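Fresh eyes needed here. I'd like your take on this protein's tokenised backbone:
***
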Amino acid sequence: MLILSAKQIHEWDQHTIRNKPVASVDLMESAAIRCFQWIQQHNLLPNKFTIFCGKGNNGGDGLALARLLTRQGAEVMVHILELGQKGTGDFQTNLTRLHEAGIAVHYIQSSEHFPAVAPGNIIIDALFGTGLNRRLDGLTAQLVEHLNAMPNTVICLDMPSGLLADDSSKGFPVVKATITLSFQCLKLAFMMPENAAYAGDVQVLDIGLLQNYLADIPFQTLLVEEDLVKSLYRPRKRFSHKGNFGHAALIAGSYGFMGAAVLSAHACLRGGVGKLTCHIPACGYDIMQTSAPEAMSKVEKGDHWLESISDTARYDAIGIGPGIGVHDSHARLLDTVFAAAGQRPTGKEQRLVLDADALNVLAKNPALLKKIPAFSLLTPHPAEFDRMFGASANDFARMRRAQQAARELKLIIVVKGHRSFIAMPGGTGYFNNTGNPGMATGGSGDVLTGILTALLAQEYPPEQAAIFGVYLHGLAGDLAAAALTEEAMIASDITLYLGSAFHQIQKG
């Protein structure tokens, strides 16, 4: 699903009005009808509704919805924020229709006019939509605070009022939605962790905009959905052998942190790699041989941590970082791996995944960033990302910085989180649509490293491996949480449910 800017959404409206053709007020009516149908389908009738409207087109949506609800016997109270300006043409049309239907309207001209909404009433927020481009202040900000102080269910039309569609609203007064009925598509604001307290449960409603508009527009961000992932999946051929699925390496582990290496190894094996060799310090040999007998172990110089690395050019893909620690020798180790990536005897490009302590080493040695082979995958969480590329004031700034770094360095950067963001070298960004808070546990990132390394070894193109692997990781986590609860699941459960995740992707 495309995630469009406020400007693109406005242009989509205008394209539909010109080419359907349809009057703008009729398009507003269509949006109100879809909202009414959603309310009806979710058994929210009969109920009492208190609707708060601004004087823009979002307010017009609210007025049209008030009329539809009243027509079905709902008890509706309408409050219009009066700031002295005339409403838009479509707002005025719907206001006239409301008066003709005999529905009373109350105007809010000061805080003294703020209504006390009865506990059982559903609040409809139709104050401001996607066109908002500034922080709310004055009476408007006070009204938002008044609404947020009430315990009622709040349904926001298109956007929670006060939330900017394309930029940070951090610290702004914003209506806290229980449910947001987003018109036609998702907005970028809904993808950002900083807005989690405001967006609520986002439902996308098709209001009838012409789909052919999407064919010719430039886009930067998409939501990864199941259909896309299914199109990337590569079924195995009947006469395949292990050599067809690549030889991967993991450079992982140190004294006290061999668990990270084991978790990554198990995930790589379950991710479908043909062969796996784990490069580990001497302290991890017995642990790895016992815990992951399907993997080969290569003991490198160093008793407690990896002091150097050898013979990495032969691998199809390498995952580096889980549990290696941050030691002076590791800058040289990374440099050695990066140099060897271009010296493979087969001539095929070697793909790398860098995570965890490998990222911390890069942060301490920024000159190494330019030596990373093109189209390698970096998988930082936000704090690791900021250590490498500088602190970001908000989630929007971090996303844009990730896109810039991906373009400049020709890397694929996965900023991990509930909606992990994948920044591609070509400038496109993807938000993942799987995963849950139960995955916020130690070792989850090590599992992702193993999955991505396995997919790269199987010659999934790096961009596809990133999209497919992050989705698969989240899906396995969702299946684990469904069976075990978010509280009880641990990182190794994600690996255990990879088979079920593959089953789900294979269907259909």
Summary: The chain has two domains: 2-218, 226-232+245-506. The mean pLDDT is 96.
